Amino acid sequence: PEADSARRSPGGRRGARGPRRGGAPAAAMDPAARETIVEEVSGRRFQVDAGGFWQVHRLAAQTLTDALLDALAEAGADALDPDSWHLDLYGGVGLFAAAVAAAGGPSTRITTVESDPRATEHAGENLAEWVGARAETGRVDRWLAQLQTSASAAERARLERGVVVLDPPRAGAGRDVVERIADLRPAHVAYVACDPVALARDLATFRGLGYDARSVHGFDLFPHSHHVESVALLTREGSGR
């Protein structure tokens, strides 16, 4: 960020900061300014705060994006029905939402939900080329609860034809979020997990709510550690897909 070379005077007015005695002029940094960096995945540029969340392994974002697209391909050609509504939960700066939108086409309807307002702001910028993409700030459990009560019959029908992508923190999504997702009855769920134990627990909850795990793929993105990233594809029983 650019340095702010002005300061507030005791009277509240902004005045120029003069040079220190015996030294070079001092530049006051704007406390509201944040450094933004740019990451590139699949030829697309993603803005993200320097202190915001991004995968540590330099190839992780591309690896997980490719795994997500492979899972959607496994789900079938109609997984990205142009009339459906897709969700990207714990969406960060829109990495996976962009992958879904690019695969589905310019009018793909997808909403990404993230609790960090700065990440949501970046997601809106990163998804600007897709007219059907929206970025919303909110806690996933509360956002889903509101959607459950406010969605119209037509919106419910679109959600039932869609895909829900979720990339929760290490603790996993948890029963409440899983139950709310299942209540929306999406045809497919793509679950990106950073802890196999939390993933197993949430998959068991999904299984009890009518979702079968079609595939689970693991990735060693933290070499010489016990951490394993996973991408799982779940399909709703009776969805015909």
What does this structure look like?
By secondary structure, the protein is an alpha/beta fold. The protein has a single domain, classed as Vaccinia Virus protein VP39 (Rossmann fold). Helix content is 33%, strand content 25%. It has 7 helices and 11 strands. It has helices spanning 60-75, 95-104, 117-126, 140-150, 153-160, 174-184, 196-208, and strands spanning 6-8, 14-16, 36-41, 44-49, 85-89, 109-114, 133-137, 163-166, 188-193, 211-219, 229-236. A 7-stranded mixed β-sheet has the order 7-6-5-8-9-11-10, with helices on both faces. Strands 1-2 form a two-stranded antiparallel ribbon. Strands 3-4 form a two-stranded antiparallel sheet. α6 links the parallel β8 (163-166) and β9. α1 (60-75) crosses α2 (95-104). The protein starts with 5 loop residues before the first strand and ends in a 5-residue tail after the last strand. 34% of the residues are buried. The model is unreliable at 1-21 (pLDDT under 50).
